[in-house]
Design a protein that fits this description.
The chain is an alpha/beta fold. The chain is 43% helix and 17% strand.
Length: 214
């Protein structure tokens, strides 16, 4: 079995999400995904990494990872190159799992637990109360939102006015008003805030029973 094509798929608005499909000459197709700066990731996949994989054994996953990383290690341990490598790596593991007829976790040493708790993450931040109700109906009892993130930009995370603080707390209050304590809530600050402001935000959120601050 050899890789014979690598395809990228960008959908949605915004189109930051990107899927990588690694095709093989036996018809197996592995799927991987990543997010952010999808056009740049797409370029890394096709212009830099695809030539290292096409015509080669998809099962040589660690060798492919090392070759891709060596090609791009001057860019450091982050950025579009690493996201592209990550998506390709997922797709190669997917191919190997399909070929072996087992879930990928079996190839990685087997399951640690029978089930895992999940939470929903994202926006928009308007209508969070109704969203919380819908999530509970679907059996999801935890969610993470990040309404403080866009507010951080003007001051580069150094200052949060009282009116702004009240504004970013509203989605959390809406959730509590809608469903009470029936759902757990986490806050994602995305590393945007200075320590003093982050502490200020966290203290104000204590009364809203926040599961964690990220």
């Amino acid at each position: 079995m050899n890789v014979n094509n690598i395809e990228t798929v960008r959908v949605g608005d915004p189109s930051d999400a990107i899927w990588v499909r690694v095709h093989t000459d036996t018809g197996l197709i592995g799927l991987g995904e990543t997010w952010y700066a999808s056009k740049t990731v797409e370029s890394a996949v096709h212009d830099h990494f695809a030539p290292l994989l096409v015509g080669r054994d998809p099962f040589a996953i660690e060798r492919h990872w090392l070759n891709m990383f060596r090609l791009s290690d001057h860019a450091g341990y982050g950025g579009a190159e690493l996201r592209a490598i990550s998506a390709i790596d997922m797709a190669l593991w997917d191919i190997k799992g399909q070929a072996a007829g087992v879930p990928v976790y079996e190839l990685l040493g087997g399951a640690v637990r029978k089930k895992i708790r999940v939470y929903a993450t994202g926006g928009p931040f308007q209508g969070c109360g109704e969203l919380a109700k819908e999530l509970i109906e679907d059996g999801i009892v935890a969610m993470k939102i990040g309404p403080t993130i866009p507010v951080a930009t003007p001051s580069e995370g150094q200052y949060l006015a009282p009116v702004e603080l009240d504004h970013v707390l509203k989605p959390f209050r809406d959730i509590r008003d809608a469903v009470g304590g029936d759902i757990k809530i986490a806050n994602d600050g995305h590393g945007k805030w200075s320590l003093p402001v982050a502490i200020q935000i966290a203290k104000e959120m204590e009364k809203l029973d926040i599961m964690w601050q990220e």
